[in-house]
Amino acid sequence: MGSNTLEIRQLNTSFLTQKGEVRAVMDVSLDVPEGKITGIVGESGCGKSVTAKSVMGLVKYPGKVMSGEILLDGRDIRDIPEKEKCALRGSEVSMIFQEPMTSLNPVIRIGKQVEEALLLHKDIPKEQARIRTVEMLESVGISDAGNRMRCYPHQLSGGLRQRVMIAMAMICRPKLLIADEPTTALDVTVEAQILRLMKKLCSGGTSILLISHNLGVIAQICDYVYVMYAGRIVECADTVTLFDHPAHPYTMGLLRAATSLRQDTEILETIPGVVPNLLHLPKGCSFAPRCGSCGDRCRGEMPLMYEAGEEGHMARCFMC
Amino acid sequence: MSEILLEAKGLTKAFPAGRGRKVHAVTDVSLKVYKGETLGLVGESGCGKSTLGRMMIRLLAPDSGRLLLKGGDVTGMSDRDFLRHRRQLQLIFQDPYASLDPRLTVRELIAEPLRTWNVCRSRDEMTARVLELMEDVGVPGEFLYRYPHQFSGGQRQRIGIARALAADPELIVCDEPVSALDVPVQNQILNLLSGLQKARGLTYLFISHDLSVVRHISDRVCIMFLGMLCEIGETEEIFSSPLHPYTRFLMNAILLPDPHHRHEEDTLLSGEIPSAVNPPPGCRFHTRCPYATDRCRSEVPVMRDMGGRMAACHHPLGHGADLRSSEEARTS
């Protein structure tokens, strides 16, 4: 087994609001093994993006990483000075965001935006940076890259812009790529192309942490999956095990909801109730009020992560 | 089949794009909506499905073409005359965060259309009617005086649906009503829409980019590409044996929540949607189509009846045709 590019241990991130402390990420521990795609799946507001931003050191006021370790290749990067973080971002760790429309600078040509990371982090002459940029743009599937470099973002389609974002993130060959809903804003046919590209990057040696609310995306390309609910990881397993033998009632509910669309049923499966407010979490298991197999113990006590069947398959549930 | 509620004949709309250029949003679209059915309208972003949806309920005037409501031409009617028909045609919007006035309470939001149509004679009657509508869409009555920001996305969408129902319409255009929602919530809203349709005999024009959703909810489906229709037919027929190559590619691009069925490279569409400012000549899909021939590059395919359904393609897929034989098509 290879080593882990990223290890998160007992991460807690909170937003200190006027109404109180909103604990967006609670005791999250996860591993991103080298050369694999690791997914985080959950509904909006479950803390998956905040987890990613915590790794990048991009949590903004009033948010704050309260405690925990973020180990990049074994080195804790949580409390290093901002200057060192800047040196890491873009060279060792990169992130792509959901909105390719708003993440690019509209008044700078895309070639220059992609090149910037290279000139900033690597000591190479401009000529060579240009050549590398063209190569990079071509490798993410942008044809005629030499001319396209001179385009402004608004001249490109959504799919091309997302490719530019990926080129920008990948140009310094980072060890870790964090992709936060990279295809949510794209059309289905383009989405499939971008996922294929991410898979190619991964087989080129980059470890990827992919965040998505879409179980379809997760099933298609991830090797290992973490399921988050109300700020906590509730289940983790390799992709096939998770989809074949989910152990946590929330994961089961999500899967049933996603697959019932494809079955010939009149009434679609849902999960009763609503996602709890992070300011007023229920006592005990956060999912207990919506859970069909919930017992007295679940209402009083937060379950830990327990082994569920196969090795590496864990679930935060007393029942598994 | 039952009576035709709404019919579009050759609807065309282009928007100015500066310097004399035009975005050809919808070109020569004809379709019928039957009473009581759900007609799904599928396509990628920018293909003109929202523009078509809006023209179908006269929120946008077409450049050419006609719109018939129950057989009567309403295209050239003045807005004032059309007002008596307006009530029958309502709309549910995509973004439940942007489509509700943040400064109005739920009561005011739902009462607004009731007031527009003079449905209620007194304040008490109005409150009673609002509560009734809230119950119909599953929003608890105690939230009567809450504001939109106090609700989740799913509940806001329910309020949007209540507003559309307030006019007691016959047809509702649902413009991507669930694409901003998480899957379990999306399913709740789809169940609600199906239930309301049964209880009230509603007709839906259901616009979505998500084929799985459309497959579930629609009786018939029409597929759009770059402002033109590719294919219309019964949902199950289209999904079991698509005639237009684009339909097949769209189906292949569905991301199954099943790691045992991962995409195979050669069944995916390459390239992107061409610009609607300069749509390609001939069949608009030919730049991405592996089967395209010279005829496709020059001659616009017309909608033809192909065994009970309509498709606009010079070389429709045979039943069970395999995309992998595309190599042969290109070389021949």
Strand and helix layout:
The complex is a heterodimer of chains A (320) and B (332).
Chain A: E1 4-17, E2 20-33, E3 37-41, H1 48-56, E4 63-72, E5 75-76, H2 82-88, E6 93-96, H3 110-121, H4 126-139, H5 145-148, H6 158-170, E7 176-180, H7 188-203, E8 207-212, H8 215-221, E9 224-229, E10 232-238, H9 239-244, H10 249-260, H11 296-300, E11 306-307, E12 314-315
Parallel strand pairs in A: 3-8, 3-9, 6-7, 7-8
Antiparallel strand pairs in A: 1-2, 1-4, 4-5, 9-10, 10-12, 11-12
Chain B: E1 4-16, E2 22-34, E3 38-42, H1 49-56, E4 64-69, E5 72-73, H2 79-86, E6 89-92, H3 106-116, H4 123-137, H5 153-166, E7 171-175, H6 183-200, E8 203-208, H7 211-217, E9 220-225, E10 228-234, H8 235-240, H9 245-252, H10 294-298, E11 304-305, E12 310-311, H11 326-331
Parallel strand pairs in B: 3-8, 3-9, 6-7, 7-8
Antiparallel strand pairs in B: 1-2, 1-4, 4-5, 9-10, 10-12, 11-12
Structure, explained:
The complex is a heterodimer of chains A (320) and B (332). By secondary structure, chain A is an alpha/beta fold. Chain A contains 11 helices and 12 strands. Chain A folds into 2 domains: 4-229, 3-Layer(aba) Sandwich (Rossmann fold); 247-320, no CATH class. In chain A, 33% of the residues lie in helices and 24% in strands. Chain A has an 8-stranded mixed β-sheet, sandwiched between helices. Chain A has a 4-stranded antiparallel β-sheet with strand order 2-1-4-5. In chain A, α3 crosses α4. Chain A starts with a strand and ends in a 5-residue tail after the last strand. The relative contact order of chain A is 0.14. In chain B, strands 6-7-8-3-9-10-12-11 form an 8-stranded mixed β-sheet, with helices on both faces. A 4-stranded antiparallel β-sheet of chain B has the order 2-1-4-5. Helix content of chain B is 32%, strand content 21%. In chain B, α6 (183-200) links the parallel β7 and β8 (203-208). Chain B is of the alpha/beta class. At the A-B interface, α6, α7, α8, α9 and α10 of A face α6, α7 and α9 of B.
